[in-house]
Amino acid sequence: MQFMIDSEGWIEGVRRVPSPFCDDRPEGEISLLVVHNISLPPGKFGGGYVEKLFTGTLDPKADPYFEQIALMRVSSHCFIERNGRVTQFVPFLRRAWHAGVSHYEGREKCNDFSVGIELEGTDHEPYEDAQYEALSSLTAGLIRVYPEMSINRMTGHCDIAPERKTDPGEAFYWERFRRLVEQKCAGRS
């Protein structure tokens, strides 16, 4: 699987669901990948609720948990479902609102210079092979297109907002992910 990214920052051939929760990057820099997880309601997969959250259409009456989050203005660039299907909400050239208060290598406001990818999952439940395949292929595509990104500039939400966040959690195997990205960048997969 190889993802091609067009000149506007959209992935060719994947489902696009534009989110209103984005804006222009202040510097235009794209140099960091932030891996997240999400499931709505927590611990449940499917249902289309993540898409509704990222587009501002989540019904607070659909689940008691949604009353707390329905008015949040959040997005990610992409969401990877359990089966590996990728949906893009924000083009990479724009700033998605995924990281919140954050810092990386002495810099604050990680949304300014990062790409946020959400995996459908939880901190404690193993991710699917299809998700690792899609995430590593997408990451290799990002590294090809945006020269400031590299295999050494991939981190978790837990690392850029450690006081607030724990995702992608202990169930995410960074070594496996990095190995897959290296193979794809070298053209071996």
Keyphrases for this structure?
Lysozyme-like; 6-stranded mixed beta sheet; 10 strands; alpha/beta; 23% helix; two-stranded antiparallel sheet; 189 residues
Trace the largest sheet across and list its strands: 1-5-4-9-3-10
Q: C-alpha Rg, in Å?
A: 15 Å
CATH superfamily membership: Peptidoglycan recognition protein-like
Count of spatially separate domains:
1
Strand count, sense and barrel status of the largest sheet are: 6 strands, mixed
Give the class-level CATH name: Alpha Beta
Helix coverage percent of residues?
A: 10-25%
Q: Please give the CATH architecture.
A: 3-Layer(aba) Sandwich
Number of distinct beta strands: 10
Task: Outline the low-pLDDT stretches.
Answer: none
Averaged pLDDT: 96
Strand content: 15-25%
For the record, give the distance between the C-alpha atoms at the N and C termini, rounded to a whole number: 8 Å
**What is the chain-wise order of helices and strands?**
EEEHHEEEEEEHEHH
What's the total helix number?
5
- What name does the CATH topology carry? Lysozyme-like
Inertia-based shape: globular
Q: Look at the helices and sheets and give the structural class.
A: alpha/beta
Description:
With 189 residues, the chain is of the alpha/beta class. It has a single domain, classed as Peptidoglycan recognition protein-like (Lysozyme-like, 3-Layer(aba) Sandwich), CATH 3.40.80. The chain contains 5 helices and 10 strands, in the order βββααββββββαβαα. It has helices at 49-55, 66-69, 129-145, 157-160, 174-185; strands at 15-16, 22-24, 32-38, 78-80, 86-88, 94-96, 103-104, 107-108, 114-120, 154-156. It has a 6-stranded mixed β-sheet with strand order 1-5-4-9-3-10. The protein has a two-stranded antiparallel sheet with strand order 2-6. Helix 3 (129-145) packs across helix 5 (174-185). It is globular. The termini are close together.
